[in-house]
Amino acid sequence: xxxxxxxxNEAAAGGGVAGRDRPEENRMVARVSFQTDPSRYRHWRLAxxxxxxxxxxxxxxxxxxxxxxxxxxxxxxLGVDIELYDAVQxxxxxxxxxxxxVITSGKDKVFCAGANIRMLAQSSHPWKVxxxxxxxxxxxxxxxxxxxxxxxxxxxxxxxxxxxxxxxALACEHILLIDDRSSAVSLxxxxxLGVLPGTGGLTRVTDKRGVRRDLAxxxxxxxxxxxxxxxxxxKLVDEAIPxxxxxxxxxxxxxxxxxxxxxxxxxxxxxxxxxxxxSRTDDAITYTYVSAALDRGRxxxxxxxxxxxxxxxxxxxxxxxxxGLTINDVHALGDRFWTLAVTRELDDLILDLRTNxxxxxxxxxxxxxxxxxxxxxxxLLLDNAATDWLANEIxxxxxxxxxxxxxxxxxxxxxxxxxxxxxxxxxxxxxxxxRSYMLSGVFEDVDPDAAPATITVAAMNTGPLPMxxxxxxxxxxxxxxxxxxxxxxxxxxxxxxxxxAERLGLVTFAPDDIDWADEVRIAVExxxxxSPDALTGLEANYRFAGPExxxxxxxxxxxxxxxxxxxxxxxxxxDGALRAYGTGKRAEFDRKRV
Amino acid sequence: xxxxxxxxNEAAAGGGVAGRDRPEENRMVARVSFQTDPSRYRHWRLAxxxxxxxxxxxxxxxxxxxxxxxxxxxxxxLGVDIELYDAVQxxxxxxxxxxxxVITSGKDKVFCAGANIRMLAQSSHPWKVxxxxxxxxxxxxxxxxxxxxxxxxxxxxxxxxxxxxxxxALACEHILLIDDRSSAVSLxxxxxLGVLPGTGGLTRVTDKRGVRRDLAxxxxxxxxxxxxxxxxxxKLVDEAIPxxxxxxxxxxxxxxxxxxxxxxxxxxxxxxxxxxxxSRTDDAITYTYVSAALDRGRxxxxxxxxxxxxxxxxxxxxxxxxxGLTINDVHALGDRFWTLAVTRELDDLILDLRTNxxxxxxxxxxxxxxxxxxxxxxxLLLDNAATDWLANEIxxxxxxxxxxxxxxxxxxxxxxxxxxxxxxxxxxxxxxxxRSYMLSGVFEDVDPDAAPATITVAAMNTGPLPMxxxxxxxxxxxxxxxxxxxxxxxxxxxxxxxxxAERLGLVTFAPDDIDWADEVRIAVExxxxxSPDALTGLEANYRFAGPExxxxxxxxxxxxxxxxxxxxxxxxxxDGALRAYGTGKRAEFDRKRV
Lengths: 594, 594
What we know:
The structure is a homodimer. In chain A, 40% of the residues lie in helices and 15% in strands. The first copy, chain A, is built from 22 helices and 22 strands. In chain A, the strands form 6 sheets. In chain A, strands 14-15-16-17-18-19-21 form a 7-stranded mixed sheet, with helices on both faces. In chain A, strands 3-4-6-9-11-13 form a 6-stranded mixed sheet, sandwiched between helices. Chain A has a 3-stranded parallel sheet with strand order 7-10-12. The relative contact order of chain A is 0.09.
């Protein structure tokens, strides 16, 4: 699990670190794996009773992902959050009968002390940023489960919830705090550490819970936090419950939430999320439908996403083409069903590359297969997503995975070539990209008889897969140009060639065979020549044209300020607050306001 | 104008630098003054012909505010932007007949090369951030004039507009580019300097002009930019006009805009913005109605804003109480009219403190005077703002000044004491504050017979002074709590005492005489003990609860990312792109993506 189990194939090393050391990352990493399962959890206990699941945080002090810190008082590091992410995912897929989830602590008198400070203090800047991003995504996943899966999360704070601990509670629909004169909620980051409550804290307090901004200001400067009735009055929590009524009240709230749940029914029991079939070397990551070739020299990952091949009898998705499949077959196939399988693979690949391959700055996406197959899978899901829990979950998971791509600080380029299947759900990969190139015609030298590439706009592109800003990628793309959007929607279901796609504004450029190699090469090489930081800022702005939501505010406004603060000597310098905490030394501040 | 004219009273030193040197600010500053007038402009020429004003940028190469750089190719520094700000303000107040403003270049073949790179490279981090903030505010002022004053800005790009030059054009309603095979618009910040087009560029391209995000991505990586028809097709400009038709087309567009203008009429000619009566020492800044005592030890500016005193016959606003005044009197009083005078003073004070007093981290606001007087001034303006250009301009100017406060990286605390007049327009100061304290009762030792403080919600608080997020400060305060907002609005016009104000949620705390001194002292001292950077991030998040607009996205998402990039070695380090530019050296990048 930790540095001990260095293994060539990290799939075996759940929620842990494997492979070569990278000392520049401050003892935090070798290679992190995001794969785990409840049998390997060290920090969470999952119990299910009828429609209510209880997820109890009980962090193993010696279970840190890196060395040099102890996870006291239910403080967490990335490894703890990887298990939480896994649990939230599994509840959705493996426990269809669960309609409410209580998050509580397995320890006495403390719910969660937030992110481990020593871990943060010793982490490199990229590690801190990546860690916060993943934590944010997991909290958004908790909200997504509540809103769209009918698994309502309730925070049962049986002790003090500080910093990231309270931020986890904020992601829940209802917050119960034990009223025992000592337990409180707090955001002590600013007074103690000189950083922000950066995993949603500042945004959710005002925008979700409606805490008045001046009270929120006071709260975020009061390290010991606020408990009892005042926490309720200020809307920091929903209820403060005396210890004698605690268990019963938590239980009642969970049952009430379960009763009110919009969880869809559907055939079959849960779908087991079995171990991913993944091979990982320094140069390649290979799953069943997704693969990535890592070119460290150019700083590029060449990613290919495949549709099932109807002609391949060994395809693990049987039948390879979904024509004639029913929703019952989807349940029977479980995690072998193509869309679920490919989504899990993409999700894992994004996390792997994002965390372990910082110098691979450009991700080039290709697809391979029959567009009709992709559209048939899409249709099967969308036909059932309103009534069947599993179809709904698969679509939601694909949505979240695309959102993960949107907030990934890598340049994304889609290459649309003959033999590709950028249709419906997979077209979203091209729409999520910063740029797309579509070959006009064919590669004359390679396969002059190939059918030219097409792209297809379909139902998946016009609603079920919104970005964090609440708009579809198409609507964001054509922001303020309703006519262009309407023109595209009018051509839905058509197989559009490169000229049409370019004219409709669906691809950036459509070079022909003669220009293709040079244009694509220059685009990729140029990207590698630019400042990685400036690219991150550019993409973080352009990808979110239009309205902002609480979710995009967390990734935009809040995260950007936090990242700035993380680079400042007042936090991360040798005398900064983050480094000084716990040493007995007082932080030395440059008092200039910027 | 430059370091030469060091003068004790900087009011004499227009748009320049005066006072003691501060070598830590990289040769950029002594003390900057924001006061200037057209007779002192070195970089802009203003010409007026009927309803059309032309503002020609013709930057004096040797006219930089600091030393060590030349303002070649119409590149700009803060001094150039101070003149632009002055011109935009004066057009609104001094030129009521102007209904369209053409911004163009006085130089041949170049419109504007953007912010001066050498200036940026040698600037400290706070200077860069402050400079960009003021530049952003001026560009927002251009948009505000177009939208609300009926002075429509047209960018006539008679040569290449690069970086900040194009960003200035983006703030205009209509962009004309000369079509001469060499002139282009460009955002070369990322490829050349490793930073962002951070004064609105990335936001306005997509959100205002509707440039598709992938085309915008390509555009922002192509240093030489895009001109001609392609610039029009991509919506980067509105028209590309051949040289032979240039003058006539620009003139036609200006006349058309003037005809379509919503500029209000009203009596009288323009109102001259005469030199502010300001005295400035190291410890105090004093105007007619506004004063600030600077306590460097505590890092606090104690700011007092006064209503006119009806009992003072020397009051420059005659009559001191507006009862019985008509809109004609407002015109006759001109910039002696209280609201205009106090707004100019506040505006100048904010800019002065923000730029020159970086270590004064907390601004404490008090008001002094009769609430009835403030409300009478407010009523006079609001009764006429829909029909009279001057009343409209004064309200808009107060709105912009409050917005400047909202984006100021200083902690704002309002103290509401007996003798204060936090009513209507001045109540906004308390609502803009991060926290407010209102004395319950009176100071028994000081003046036991004083009338306890009151605050009054009035029409100014419920519409005409929106924040950048499009909501009033009240609506932002009570986000998601319609009932609380309604309860407050129901009490409009009432003089609310401390208990009522606290109960209604209009003030943060209402301590009595016994607790007051300690509570206020602790709040202020505590603020000075926290990390200044973390406070900046905290306030930048809490002040903008709720929806985001293009304006708040520029100050939130875009600016925060830019500030982060400004701190990163890839831009600002010895081998960073910003420092390497023009030296012949290639920037050395840490290739890790964060």
